[in-house]
Structures are given as C-alpha cells and as structure tokens.
Specification:
This protein has 176 residues and is mainly alpha-helical. Helices cover 59% and strands 10% of the residues. It has five helices and five strands; from the N terminus they run αβββαααββα. The strands form two sheets. Strands 2-1-3 form a three-stranded antiparallel sheet, with no helix packed on it. It has a two-stranded antiparallel sheet with strand order 4-5. The chain is rod-shaped.
C-alpha cells in the first residue's frame, strides 16, 4: 500500500505545481499602446495608458470584447486632457530608449556634418594655397612648360600666361 500512496502524493504535488504555474501565467497585463499595438507584460502598463485601453489585468476578467476598438494615437491626442495626462506620466523604458536613440542619431548627424564641413574647409584651404603658389610662379616670369596630349613639351607664351593669371586670380578671389 505504501507505493500506491507515494504515487498519489507525487501526482497531487505535480498537479499543484502545474496549477501554480497557470496562476502565474494569468497574472499578466494586456493593453493597447498609443499606436494601437497590443502589449503584453507582467508589470502594469505605464501611467500614460488610459484605463479604456487596458484589456486585461490580474484578478480581473478581460474587459476587451471583439466590438471594442483600440484607441489610436490620433484619437488619444484629440481627447481633452490626454496631453495633460501624458505630460504628467513618467516616461516608460521604451520611450526613454526611443528618446535616447533619437538623440544619439541627431548627435551622429551633427558630428558627421561638422566633419564634412571641416574636410571641405581643409580642401578649400589647400586649393587656395596651391593657387597662391601657382600665381607667384606665373608672376615671377619664369618660363613655364606644359605637355600636350601627344606628350610633347611646349612653353607658355605671354597670352597663355595672362590667361592662366586671370584664372588664378579668379580662384584666389573665391578664397577671400
């Protein structure tokens, strides 16, 4: 008789353990967020969620029926007092994370823009320095040689030198 009693006690303990898990599983909250997406959690929804959007709470029967439509962000914003309730409610972790990610992206964009502007300024300064050096060379009167498309060398005449000086002056005017 003892083995049968032991089996009954073991089976009873297993049933009690299974029932305790189902109780824990039913202790969940279900609600619709501001975008109309159903959220499940074992902690209560944020204070910014109105009770009309809470579908299920532990210890309560489901207040959601198929005819109930979740409140959208536009409807919630249009309701009087909705903005006041949202301002007073503390930010949820998801809202804090989204805000952090937004600030992180904005900072990265600012840093990239600043780096691009610095690179452009450095390139412009380098080009201006090269134009100044070329202009000094043109004004020095030294004979300047070029290579044509056939690979043959030729010297700049006075008209070509004057044209090159005008081009260099135009570039230097943009540097100031």
């Amino acid at each position: 008789m003892k083995p049968i009693l032991l089996k009954q006690v073991t089976a009873g303990a297993a049933i009690l353990a299974a029932l305790s898990f189902t109780t824990a599983a039913s202790a969940q909250y279900v609600w619709f967020n501001e975008n109309g997406i159903k959220q499940y959690s074992d902690i209560p929804p944020p204070a910014s969620v109105p009770t009309s959007r809470i579908v299920k709470q532990p210890g309560q029967a489901s207040s959601f029926s198929p005819k109930t439509v979740p409140v959208s962000a536009e409807t919630a914003a249009a309701a009087p007092g909705a903005a006041v309730a949202k301002d007073k409610a503390p930010m949820t972790i998801a809202e804090k994370n989204a805000d952090f990610q937004k600030r992180k992206m904005e900072r990265a964009e600012k840093e990239k823009k600043a780096a691009d502007e610095a690179k452009l300024a450095a390139d412009k300064a380098k080009n201006c320095d090269q134009a100044r050096a070329y202009n000094r060379t043109l004004q020095s009167g030294v004979r300047l040689a070029r290579t044509d498309k056939n690979g043959e060398r030729y010297y700049l005449n006075d008209a070509q030198r004057a044209q090159e000086m005008q081009d260099a002056k135009r570039i230097l005017d943009e540097c100031k």
